[in-house]
Amino acid sequence: MKTRDRIVATALNLFNEAGYGAVTTALLAERLGMAEGNLWYHFKTKRALLDAIGERFAASITARLALVPTSDPVASYARLLRAMMAEFRDFRFLYRDQPAYGDHAAVIAQNAPHWTRQTFAQIEAHLGALVDAGLLDLPRERLRDLASNATILLRYGLEHQRELGTATASGTGAVHRTLLRHLTLFEHALAPAAAADLKAAIERIEAEAPLAA
Q: Measured between alpha carbons, how far is 146 from 89 in angstroms, rounded to an integer?
């Protein structure tokens, strides 16, 4: 791995573990096993590191937004949920700590509203595929609101638990609870086999997506 990439990856891990505000340049340099001067040869400021992480975040979201329903809409929706949980895992501090450090990286600030609207549309498309397959018994005019509510529960579910004092790190069941709560929005309208398959997929996602607290 190139030095610059190693710095970004290590900084991301540290920010996820400890929070952006708690990570000093000295701590980051120590974790990297390099002098602070060498660190700042590649990144002049901590904000420059944040911008580099923002570029990785943007690439991850672009890849996730490319996921479309397939001939197996249940598996497709499970794949989408897995990708969203991976975002929350890999970029935990961006979702958890943003109020503590101020503005987002430029690429995030510029694109966040667009990404949110695209995410609503993406979830709506996957729900529509379930309707088309006869697996979700809901009128199409309700799907946009359902997609919006599902996005909110997925996006803020972990933070809601954390604010209530509930542990959210790996092994606590936080991902499992978040995914099941979002499923309550439409489980009543799912075919029993589809609901069972989604629940089984959620069990696997919990095991696959370790989270920093």
A: 24
Check if the beta carbon of residue 211 is closer than 8 Å to that of residue 174. Answer: yes
Q: What is the CATH number of the domain that holds 78?
A: 1.10.357.10
Beta-carbon count within 10 A of 15 CB: 26
Could you give the C-alpha distances from 176 to 165, 171, 206, in angstroms and in order? Answer: 17, 10, 5
Using only C-alpha atoms, the chain has a radius of gyration, in whole angstroms, of 19
The structural domain count of the chain equals 1
Host domain of residue 107: 64-208
Spell out the residues 6+ positions from residue 41 whose beta carbon is closer than 8 angstroms to its own: none
Residue pointed to by tokens 């690429």: 107
**Does pLDDT of 43 surpass 70?**
yes
**Residue type at 106 in one-letter notation:** A
**In this structure, how many other beta carbons lie within 10 angstroms of the beta carbon of residue 62?**
12
Indicate whether 15 belongs to any domain.
Answer: no
Number of alpha carbons in the 13 Å side-chain half-sphere of residue 83? 20
pLDDT in tens, 110-123: 898 899 999 999 99
Distance CA 116, CA 131 (A): 23
CA distance 199 to 213: 24
Q: How many other C-beta atoms are found inside a 10 Å radius of the C-beta of residue 210?
A: 11
Residue 192 lies in a domain: yes
